[in-house]
Specification:
The two termini are about 35 Å apart. The protein folds into three domains: about 5-185, Rossmann fold (3-Layer(aba) Sandwich); about 215-295, Orthogonal Bundle (N-(1-d-carboxylethyl)-l-norvaline Dehydrogenase, domain 2), CATH 1.10.1040; about 305-380, N-(1-d-carboxylethyl)-l-norvaline Dehydrogenase, domain 2. The model has no long low-confidence stretch (mean pLDDT about 95). The longest helix is centred in the first third of the chain and has 20 residues, at about 40-60. With about 375 residues, the protein is α/β, with parallel strands linked by helices. The chain contains 17 helices and eight strands. Helices cover about 50% and strands about 10% of the residues. The protein has helices spanning about 15-25, 40-60, 65-70, 80-85, 100-110, 125-130, 165-175, 195-210, 215-225, 230-240, 240-255, 265-270, 305-320, 325-335, 345-350, 350-365, 375-380; strands at about 10, 30-35, 75, 90, 115-120, 140-145, 155-160, 180-185.
Length: about 375
């Protein structure tokens, strides 16, 4: 199968990611089937696509005729078998619960045409394990889009244990046709590239709050003063504290107990204050966006600590053959989060020896083994 053979894409899920991926497929000219478990979810997803396309017409990014054609190209379903019966490529975007994903893939395997490729938009979970629920593991691939899918360029294309090179190539080329910046993930590894590299910085940011070393406002103000469009704690709220919590649990289970969620985060989850989606999380979102007072910046917080942890984690991916090159990792970070530079570009300018020393100091200060510098970082031969 080649990417030219893909005419119809089915998306499982009409929520934040599902409806966004469906819109991306429409914008690329594909026929789309969008499915969710209840009609009200499907209707809401379709409504959000309509609103988004209307804004693109307003901004003159698409014509009114294009908008009409795209809306004619989408059909919606509740029945999973009906939604995929004539699909060439299926993208699953259901919640990050492994048992649920396996159930969906079992159903997809039974109902989708034999030639169809089945992709998972999982952000952390094992593509190999998901694929094992099917009788076509060589046609199962990870295709991790970033939120909001219409705007964010990165798509991680993840090779499961049995994914064929043909399947990888179709998924990669499909991402290109969708005007995205795909990065190949050669080994099915926890968190893939972007989330794996961000994970140790999340541990540090969690510890800073847990130990009351700084207030979220102070850190975010510091990062905003340096030109970041959004500070790390506001970003946590934006993505959802529940997402951060479940990711931390998964990393703690699969990678190291160092990643276990802190008590302050569990308290937020228990209270139902999950960030932007609930109007309150670390910050108050009632006015549309938190007000960050730049005068409160914590001047002794060194952003290079975050870079050091990112570069260190990135070297683990190179050592493990998860990604082919430092350039691919930089491409992922730049396109996945809006950074101007990737960790290796920044790391080189600071000096790998200095970053290794920072990692050593942070590991000692917080008692976190995952912060310890790798041999690759210590040698600086990247």
């Amino acid at each position: 199968m080649k990417v030219e053979d893909v005419k119809k894409i089915a998306v499982m899920g009409a929520g934040d990611m599902g409806h966004g991926i469906a819109e991306v497929a429409l914008l690329a000219g594909y026929k789309v089937a969008m499915r969710d478990i209840e009609q009200r979810f499907v209707d809401k997803g379709l409504s959000r696509i309509r609103e988004s396309l209307a804004k693109l017409v307003e901004k003159q990014k698409v014509t009114a005729d294009n908008q009409k054609a795209m809306l004619a190209n989408i059909t919606t379903f509740v029945d999973i078998a009906e939604s995929v019966k004539d699909a060439d490529f299926v993208i699953e975007a259901v919640p990050e619960i492994m048992d649920l994903k396996k159930q969906v893939f079992q159903a997809l395997d039974k109902a989708a045409p034999k030639h169809a490729i089945l992709a998972s938009n999982t952000s952390n979970m094992s593509v190999t394990e998901i694929a094992a629920a099917t009788k076509r593991p060589e046609q199962v691939v990870g295709m991790h889009f970033f939120n909001p899918a219409v705007l964010m360029k990165l798509v991680e294309v993840i090779k499961g244990g049995k994914t064929s090179e043909e399947t990888m190539q179709v998924a990669y080329n499909l991402a290109l046709k969708m005007n995205k910046a795909p990065v190949r993930v050669e080994k099915d590894s926890i968190g893939f590239v972007y989330n794996r590299i961000q994970a140790p910085t999340a541990v540090l940011l969690d510890l800073i709050l847990e130990k009351r070393e700084a207030a979220p406002m102070e850190i975010d103000a510091k990062m905003r003063k340096l030109g970041m469009p959004m500070g790390p704690y506001e970003l946590m709220d934006y993505v959802g504290l529940d997402v951060a919590y479940h990711s931390a649990l998964y990393f703690a289970e699969k990678l190291s107990k160092d990643y276990a969620p802190p008590s302050w985060l569990k308290a937020k989850i228990d209270a139902g204050t999950l960030g932007k989606k609930t109007g309150k999380g670390i910050f108050d979102w009632s006015k549309g966006r938190p007000e960050i007072d730049l005068s409160k910046a914590k001047e002794d917080f060194d952003p290079a600590w975050l870079i050091a942890l990112q570069v260190n984690e990135a070297t683990k991916l190179l050592e493990g053959g998860v990604v082919r090159s430092a350039e691919e990792i930089d491409k992922a970070i730049v396109n996945g989060g809006g950074s101007m530079f990737g960790p290796f570009q920044l790391g080189k300018s600071i000096g790998y020896d200095k970053l290794a020393k920072m990692c050593e100091d942070l590991a000692k200060k917080y008692g976190i083994k995952s912060f310890e510098p790798t041999e690759t970082l210590k040698k600086g031969k990247i």
